[in-house]
């Protein structure tokens, strides 16, 4: 099969994407895939994710606010060093305490997504539910703009302004 | 419940029925949940674990599920019984042989199970035969609602349900479909399937045995992304897009075998039959591979209406032992029973004593011979 970008070289990278149940395929040669900024996606194990986390250097911002690498969770005493060893967190609070360090890992593990868009416990306060719905809509809007689906983007914008 | 009550037969979701069951063995949906106000299990003391266990056990055994509910204290269950639960896919290996106070709940003829104090405080799952993910999703959602009436889950508006490992964050959902793909393997196309699955961000595991190398051409396909997608979206992707496509590939490969290489197909099935009917010793690995070929042959005959001389001969053999659907023919149910009942813990519990590997191989061969020599 020919690469669909340069139409010259053999396509060796085949991408399948499913967005809202609609499937689209892309066939590229290695060169064009790199040009397009498409890294070949392979399954990331939790250990690979963790080794990535260890390698990140604390940013200036973190240095000022006390690096998360040095911190212990006030609720359970958990540290990031322990996380990289055990691959599980110490308590629900850790998601907040170590947010800066965990966010890139969460993003990688969930295909770039970082905001919940599913079931909400029925006991959750109404106001929280509304905030969540808005956050999810904003995320969808961003994706629609990026994929140049302006019709959908307009629809989402209307929905956001109605709810907001 | 005594485990010997269930160990003599296959579970309902493994009996070979349900949509697309000639290729899709079963559908499963799992949700991971933690109780608010407690640490995750890695930081819990034994006393805290016991407290969580008691809380969740009391809620789960009193659920209105319209069926008997069994509770097992996994840490106090004999090792062989724990192996049996793993072989029946009712609890994970991690749960069976983990540490500390932990429990399992089994209900609705093994189609609902819960693990308490596995990696998360609670993991609940529903199972069904064939491709029935929507039904699994509906049921697990209803059970989750019932539990949530009685307890507060750890939940954040931004990240959703909070799990011990960030890879389960958000919905906490894991959709798993077990597939039988012998023709893709025989036609050398299985790598294509594995690569495509990886491209779609799916995890592939072997269904029986350990590790990723699938024994007997059985594969388990699961989602990896649980955050930023809704439960319904994950389920719809599997049910409407991913699985029908893979089933299409496997069906095409089966047709290709029939039209282009019927001799190879016949040879595989004849050899499998000859070995299984005559072997005096057989390992579980070998039995899986050979039974896999019989399973494909029978399904081609019964579901796809196609045959070769060896398939026809295979289907004419009257099966003894198993529950035979049509007298005078070997059924899928018989084959599935053999898959389940010839696993090591099943063999031992059903004969009432522990056996070393060599004696298991003798007993396994005997059970298979008597089922296939009608
Ligand atoms: Zn190219
Ligand atoms: Zn903590």
Fold and architecture overview:
The complex is a heterodimer of chains A (164) and B (374). Chain A has eight helices and two strands. Chain A has 164 residues and is mainly alpha-helical. A two-stranded antiparallel ribbon of chain A has the order 1-2. In chain A, β1 and β2 form a beta hairpin. Residues 39-44 of chain A have low confidence and may be disordered. Chain B is an alpha+beta fold. Helix content of chain B is 46%, strand content 15%. Chain B contains 14 helices and ten strands. Chain B has an eight-stranded antiparallel β-sheet. A two-stranded antiparallel sheet of chain B has the order 6-7. The two termini of chain B are 33 Å apart. Mean pLDDT of chain B is 89; it is low at 320-327. Chains A and B meet through β1, α6 and α7 of A and α5, β6, β7, α7 and α8 of B.
Largest interface, with counts of residues having CB < 8 Å to the other chain, equals: A-B, 48 and 54 residues
Portion in helices of chain A: 40-55%
Main β-sheet, spatial strand arrangement of chain B? 2-3-4-5-1-8-10-9
> What is the H/E string of chain B?
HEHEHHEEEHEEEHHEEHHHHHHH
Number of helices of chain A: 8
Radius of gyration of chain B: 21 Å
How many strands of chain B? Answer: 10
| Form type of chain A | flat
**Oligomeric status of the shown chains?**
heterodimer
Q: In whole angstroms, how far apart are the ends of chain A?
A: 49 Å
Mean pLDDT of chain B: 89
- Largest beta-sheet characterization of chain A: 2 strands, antiparallel
Structural class of chain A: mainly alpha
What's the pLDDT, averaged over the residues of chain A? 76
Largest sheet composition of chain B: 8 strands, antiparallel
Contiguous runs where pLDDT drops below 50 for at least 5 residues of chain B: 320-327
Estimate the global geometry of chain B from the Cα principal axes. globular
List each distinct ligand once. zinc ion
């Amino acid at each position: 099969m020919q690469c669909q970008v340069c139409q010259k070289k053999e396509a060796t990278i085949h991408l399948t994407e499913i967005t809202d149940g609609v499937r689209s395929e892309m066939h590229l040669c290695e060169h064009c895939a790199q040009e397009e900024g498409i890294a070949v996606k392979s399954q990331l194990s939790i250990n690979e994710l963790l080794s990535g986390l260890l390698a990140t250097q604390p940013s200036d911002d973190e240095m000022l606010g006390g690096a998360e690498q040095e911190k212990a969770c006030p609720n359970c005493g958990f540290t990031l060093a322990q996380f990289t060893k055990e691959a599980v967190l110490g308590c629900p609070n850790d998601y907040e305490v170590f947010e800066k360090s965990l966010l890139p890992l969460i993003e990688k593990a969930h295909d770039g997504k970082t905001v919940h868009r599913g079931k909400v416990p029925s006991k959750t306060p109404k106001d929280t539910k509304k905030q969540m719905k808005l956050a999810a809509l904003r995320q969808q809007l961003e994706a629609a703009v990026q994929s140049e689906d302006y019709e959908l983007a307009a629809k989402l914008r209307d929905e956001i302004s109605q709810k907001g | 419940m005594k485990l010997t009550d269930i160990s003599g037969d296959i579970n309902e979701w493994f009996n070979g029925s349900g949509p697309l069951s000639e290729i899709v063995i079963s559908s499963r949906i799992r949700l991971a949940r933690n109780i608010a106000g407690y640490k995750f299990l890695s930081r819990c003391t034994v006393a805290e674990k016991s407290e969580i266990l008691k809380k969740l056990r009391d809620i789960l055994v009193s659920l209105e599920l319209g069926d008997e509910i069994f509770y097992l204290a996994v840490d106090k269950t004999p090792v062989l019984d724990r192996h049996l639960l793993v072989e029946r896919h009712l609890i994970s290996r991690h749960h069976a042989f983990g540490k500390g106070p932990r429990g399992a709940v089994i209900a609705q003829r093994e189609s609902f199970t819960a693990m308490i104090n596995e990696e998360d405080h609670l993991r609940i799952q529903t199972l069904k035969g064939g491709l029935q993910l929507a039904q699994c999703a509906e049921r697990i959602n209803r059970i989750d609602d019932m539990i949530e009436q009685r307890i507060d889950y750890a939940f954040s508006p931004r990240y959703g349900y909070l799990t011990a490992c960030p890879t389960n964050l958000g919905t906490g959902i894991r959709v798993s479909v077990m597939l039988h793909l012998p023709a893709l393997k025989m036609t050398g196309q299985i790598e294509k399937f594995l690569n495509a699955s990886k491209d779609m961000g799916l995890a592939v595991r072997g269904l029986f045995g350990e590790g990723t190398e699938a024994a007997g051409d059985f594969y388990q396909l699961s989602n990896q992304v649980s955050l930023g997608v809704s439960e319904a979206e994950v389920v719809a992707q599997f049910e409407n897009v991913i699985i029908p496509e893979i089933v299409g590939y496997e069906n095409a490969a089966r047709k290709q075998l029939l039209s282009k290489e019927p001799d190879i197909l016949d040879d595989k099935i004849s050899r499998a039959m000859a070995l299984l009917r005559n072997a005096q010793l057989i390992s579980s690995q070998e039995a899986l591979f050979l039974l896999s070929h019989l399973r494909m042959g029978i399904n081609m005959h019964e579901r796809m209406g196609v045959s070769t001389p060896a398939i026809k001969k295979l289907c004419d053999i009257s099966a003894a032992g198993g529950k035979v659907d049509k007298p005078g023919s070997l059924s899928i149910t018989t084959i599935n029973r053999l898959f389940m009942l010839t696993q090591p813990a099943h063999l031992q519990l059903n004969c009432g004593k522990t056996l070393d590997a060599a004696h298991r191989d003798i007993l396994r061969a005997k059970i298979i011979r008597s089922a296939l020599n009608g």
